[in-house]
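Fig. S4 source data, part A: sequence.
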Amino acid sequence: MWLPDVQYHFRGLDPDNVSVHAYNVLTYMFDNNCPIESGDHIDGLEDGEMSINVQWNVQYEDALIQPPRMVLDINTGEYAAGQRN
């Protein structure tokens, strides 16, 4: 089974909490045969914990860094940094 890398570009979030979030997202994707599609929403972070009260948009796009590959970009909403297409 192919699993994409996940990509975040953010400001104002604790990187440790984002790392745990990425681990949880990838574990979910592995356990459920990669069900996340572009345009879906996933639980975001609230007070450092994953919360259904915060929904973040996701989309597949080209990675921002090498090597060239498709990644699942997680848009952190109000904490997002940079532009998305």
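Fig. S4 source data, part B ends here. Helices lie at 15-31.
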